């Protein structure tokens, strides 16, 4: 890894030297300098000059997101922004975990605020705790999936408190501002963008292909109708059976159904399947079509856009359909009054998103953790009898077809299905009135509201109890905002100031119904079809925040800038109001340093203090209404007691940075150092049950994050026909939980489905994995016990889920009308715990368990006995495999480093002579994503696929589908 990192740095530095003497046309240099000192979108959607900003921000052009065929506008940022860590598993439409500058809260929100055209966008994730910790469930993704990449003009990333302080309590982790495309005055623009991409399985666990199902090296026999047959252990969901032998005949699982006459009581050879696990997966296909029309009507500009996205996943039957419709308009109503509005409607509809983790309907768990390696998937497709009952390989016995542990995977995907849908409206409308060229006022309304419906089905005849569950969530947020702005110059001084108010209103309602005791009538999925009365629960919350804010920026000779902001929030959920100040400053030293090699240079510094708000109804403790017992209602205390004097968490940030453009803008760099301290962290402290509660919410603890962010852009070659740009970004964060409460050392975040825990541990980085480690002697040898098993240490830290650093390296080459761009995305460090490795070794499924085809010889573990002599105790193969579960957890903890070729895009603008006058332009592009991955500690598991939610629970791999690589083509027509 060090060699690669050094190599990248050498490329950047050598390129810098190479261009030191590069010649540049004068007018081109002036244009680039203006771009460096240009205008960017900042907090509250206010456009500011880059040179005046005293905090770290980064802009990403919309075409970077759309050119690579991205369907998720958040995961598309991966590798493109310094200081931003994104975990984006390839589960269809799945969750995207995004953090900036590390973790600041133990139990609270650590993701940045998502804003689209000024609208604070709800980015909820409905995955429950079991799903997130890898214990089974469907990943329904984040609400930010509704953002349409085809509509994005640019993205501005505000990386810390000083940049995002004006947004108040929920922007303490930074903010991501999406600005969508709009019509331009005097111009008509009609575009049709159509594309298709294909997705195939890539990284998945490597399975052994030498031994079949069972628990012993010989097949059992059974007399059936006077004939003795070899049969197999149908009820066993492991693969420690005999070695494959084409001369060994046996009755397979599908030989006991008379209606399948060609297979009934017909022995077959004991051999590896012709159609194995990989044949189960489809090639995923995504179709995207966008039509946009932008038109100027005098002083009114309108842009209409419609995008249809159809996704078919790698798991058969799984699919998502999404329709985005947007209207963006602005109008000059008079010389002083302007109006603007953006309205978006999104309809997202999913069917049978695959279950993941260790769950009944998780095909990944059945394929890679427990199963039989001799199963032929061509035979599994006949999963149902004519009477509707299931045919599964995991029979209770040869004469009892009842599923023992596992359903047939085709029964799972065709019978145990799910539906989800979301109807969403979001947008804004506002008026701007200019009193004169210096003073204007703005009034805005921002709205975001949606309804989400989820339903799941477990069919009668499944291994699990049949069930029907229905959920409905309705979410809304409205912000009412007014601002007054004043901008003016006074000789050498400039002033930019504004003040305003914001009223925020949030509502959430949730309703859930579930059948009890199973379903009475098969295939009738209705809450009235339960054996017992269905269980119904509901919840509703309402919260509001009223705010005043102001900002003052002073400039001197375009050389010195000083800015101060303040915001005061009054919460409905807290007793005390909170004030958030920030101060930033910048010094444009290129104005005073007369050097031909320096095009632009700026030093900046910032400080902020932001309090993170809490959940609604967090001050009081409310009685829990339980299920009726014998017709009588039940009431009880909740598990957690809420402190009426609870305070919000406080995050204090200090940062320093330098920006420079050198050698006539052929080299640019941006470096930031930051130091954050979070205190008054909110945790649920365990208390004596005699109090009537199990936990008490308190303010306790302190956490720090210190780190650096760097970005370097080099243009080694640029002329009229050819250009070559290299961009390198790097981020390193050091997180530490300084203390908790009194002598409390560990705060448990969650448990893995088995064995390991994820905790916040004092003195360590957040997200420590706790488990047993190897025991070593004084010479570093692993020690085995008297049975030949590795000795296990006490429970201890096995590492943190947080990486040492992240890095991205993008190359963009353009030659006339042809362009090539590719991104290498690198993560070094971090850990994850793998349930798949644990059970896959335990059950004899994984390639390593075949022992090179010599299981019969057994295993002697490398190490020494407790007396220091070399280990010579022989373990049979199955006993050795079982030790991955019940001895040393460190065997299942892996380094999360990776090097990925994240995306490659090739584009070509067809010549005018070819397309004629019917089109203004046609651009054809081909792209590939997640093309290759290197430096994986476990070659069969993608470290990014260890996330099943976008919350704080990460690094607990419970049973992941294969990661995928994608190839596609896109054509853009301009009329």
TrEMBL record:
What organism does the record attribute this protein to?
Answer: Chryseobacterium flavum
Where does the TonB-dependent receptor plug domain start and stop, copy by copy? 53-175
InterPro entries documented for this protein? Beta-barrel_TonB_sf, Plug_dom, Plug_dom_sf, TonB-dep_OMP_SusC/RagA, TonB-dep_OMP_SusC/RagA_CS, TonB-dep_rcpt-like
First and last residue of the signal peptide: 1-22
| Name this protein carries in UniProt | SusC/RagA family TonB-linked outer membrane protein
- Where is this protein chiefly located? membrane
What is the membrane topology here?
Multi-pass membrane protein
List GO terms (cellular component aspect): cell outer membrane
Lineage of the organism: Bacteria, Pseudomonadati, Bacteroidota, Flavobacteriia, Flavobacteriales
Q: Which residues cross the membrane?
A: none
Regarding protein family, the annotation reads: Belongs to the TonB-dependent receptor family.
Subcellular locations according to the entry? Cell outer membrane
Query: What keywords are annotated for this sequence in UniProt?
Result: Cell outer membrane, Membrane, Signal, Transmembrane, Transmembrane beta strand, Transport
PROSITE patterns according to UniProt: TONB_DEPENDENT_REC_3 (PS52016)
Superkingdom field: Bacteria
């Amino acid at each position: 890894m060090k060699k690669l990192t050094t190599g990248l740095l050498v490329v950047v530095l050598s390129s810098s030297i190479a261009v030191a003497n590069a010649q540049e046309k004068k007018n081109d240099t002036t244009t680039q300098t203006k771009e460096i000192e240009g205008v960017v979108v900042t907090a509250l959607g206010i456009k500011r000059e880059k040179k005046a900003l005293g905090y770290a921000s980064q802009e990403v052009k919309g075409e970077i997101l759309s050119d690579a065929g991205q369907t998720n506008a958040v995961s598309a940022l991966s590798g493109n922004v310094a200081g931003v860590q994104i975990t984006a598993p390839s589960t269809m439409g799945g969750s995207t975990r995004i953090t900036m500058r590390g973790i600041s809260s133990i139990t609270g929100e650590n993701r940045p605020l998502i804003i689209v055209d000024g609208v604070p966008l709800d980015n909820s994730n409905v995955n429950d705790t079991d799903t997130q910790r890898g214990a089974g469930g469907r990943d329904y993704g984040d609400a930010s999936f509704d953002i349409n990449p085809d509509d994005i003009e640019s993205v501005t990333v505000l990386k810390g408190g000083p940049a995002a302080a004006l947004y108040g309590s929920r922007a303490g982790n930074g903010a991501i501002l999406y600005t969508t495309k709009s019509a331009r005055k005097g111009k008509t623009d009609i575009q049709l963008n159509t594309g298709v991409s294909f997705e195939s399985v890539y990284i998945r666990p490597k399975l052994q292909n030498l031994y079949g199902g069972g628990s012993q090296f010989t097949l059992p026999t059974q007399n059936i109708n006077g004939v003795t047959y070899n049969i197999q252990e149908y009820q066993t969901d492991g693969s420690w059976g005999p070695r494959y032998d084409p001369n060994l005949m046996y009755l397979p699982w599908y030989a006991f159904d008379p209606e399948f006459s060609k297979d009934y009581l017909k022995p077959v050879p004991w051999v590896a399947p012709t159609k194995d696990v990989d044949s189960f997966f489809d090639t995923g296909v995504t179709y995207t079509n966008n039509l946009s029309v932008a038109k100027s009507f005098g002083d009114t500009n309108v842009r209409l856009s419609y995008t249809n996205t159809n996704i078919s996943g790698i798991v058969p039957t799984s699919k998502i359909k999404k329709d985005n419709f947007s209207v963006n308009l602005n109008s000059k109503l008079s010389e002083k009054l302007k109006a603007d509005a953006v309205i978006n409607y999104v309809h997202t509809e999913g069917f049978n998103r695959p279950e993941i983790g260790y769950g009944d309907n998780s095909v990944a768990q059945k394929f890679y953790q427990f199963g039989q390696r001799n199963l032929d998937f061509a035979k599994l497709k006949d999963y149902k009898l004519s009477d509707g009952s299931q045919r599964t390989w995991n029979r209770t016995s040869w004469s009892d077809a009842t599923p023992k542990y596992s359903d047939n995977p085709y029964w799972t995907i065709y019978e145990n299905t799910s539906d989800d849908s979301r109807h969403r409206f979001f947008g804004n409308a506002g008026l701007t009135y200019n009193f004169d060229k210096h003073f204007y006022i703005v009034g805005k309304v921002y709205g975001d509201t949606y309804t989400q419906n989820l339903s799941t089905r477990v069919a009668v005849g499944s291994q699990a109890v049949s069930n029907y569950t229905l959920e409905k969530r309705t979410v809304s947020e409205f912000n009412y905002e007014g601002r007054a702005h004043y901008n003016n110059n006074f000789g050498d001084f400039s002033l930019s100031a504004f003040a305003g108010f914001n009223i925020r209103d949030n509502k959430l309602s949730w309703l859930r119904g579930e059948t009890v005791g199973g379903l009475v009538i098969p295939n009738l999925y209705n809450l009235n079809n339960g054996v017992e009365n269905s269980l119904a629960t509901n919840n509703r919350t309402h919260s509001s925040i009223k705010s005043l804010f102001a900002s003052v920026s002073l400039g001197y000779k375009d050389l010195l800038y000083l800015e101060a902001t303040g915001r005061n929030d009054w919460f409905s959920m807290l007793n005390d109001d909170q004030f958030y100040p920030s101060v930033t400053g910048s010094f444009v030293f290129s104005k005073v340093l007369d050097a031909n090699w320096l095009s632009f240079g700026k030093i900046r510094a910032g400080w902020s203090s932001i309090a993170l708000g809490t959940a609604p109804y967090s001050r009081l403790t409310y009685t829990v209404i339980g299920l009726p017992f014998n017709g009588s209602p039940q009431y009880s205390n909740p598990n957690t007691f809420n402190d009426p004097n609870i305070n919000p968490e406080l995050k204090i940030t200090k940062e320093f940075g330098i920006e420079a453009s050198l050698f006539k803008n052929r080299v640019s760099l941006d470096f930031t150092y930051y130091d954050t301290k979070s205190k008054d962290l909110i945790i649920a402290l365990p208390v004596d049950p005699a109090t009537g509660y199990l936990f008490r919410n308190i303010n306790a603890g302190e956490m720090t994050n210190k780190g650096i962010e760097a970005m370097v852009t080099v243009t080694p070659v640029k002329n009229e026909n050819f250009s070559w740009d290299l961009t390198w970004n790097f981020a390193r964060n050091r997180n530490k939980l300084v203390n908790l409460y009194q002598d409390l050392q560990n705060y448990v975040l969650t448990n893995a489905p088995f064995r390991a825990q994820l905790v916040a541990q004092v003195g360590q980085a957040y997200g420590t994995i706790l488990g047993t480690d190897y025991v070593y002697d004084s010479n570093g040898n692993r020690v085995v016990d008297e049975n030949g098993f590795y000795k296990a240490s006490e429970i201890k830290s096995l590492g943190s889920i947080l990486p040492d650093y992240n890095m991205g390296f993008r190359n963009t080459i353009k030659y006339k009308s042809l362009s090539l761009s590719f991104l290498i995305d690198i993560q070094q460090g971090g850990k994850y715990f793998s349930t798949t490795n644990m059970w896959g070794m335990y059950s004899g499924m994984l390639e390593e368990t075949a022992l090179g085809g010599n299981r019969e010889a057994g295993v002697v573990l490398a190490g020494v006995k407790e007396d220091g002599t070399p280990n010579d105790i022989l373990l049979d193969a199955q006993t050795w495999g079982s030790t991955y579960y019940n001895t040393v957890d460190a065997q299942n903890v892996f380094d999360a480093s990776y090097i990925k070729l994240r995306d490659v895009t090739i584009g070509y603008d067809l010549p005018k002579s070819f397309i004629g006058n019917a089109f203004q332009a046609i651009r054809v592009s081909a792209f590939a994503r997640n093309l290759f991955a290197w430096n994986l500690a476990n070659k069969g598991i993608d470290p990014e696929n260890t996330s099943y939610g976008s919350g704080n629970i990460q690094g607990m791999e419970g049973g992941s589908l294969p990661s995928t690589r994608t190839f596609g083509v896109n054509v853009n027509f301009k009329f």
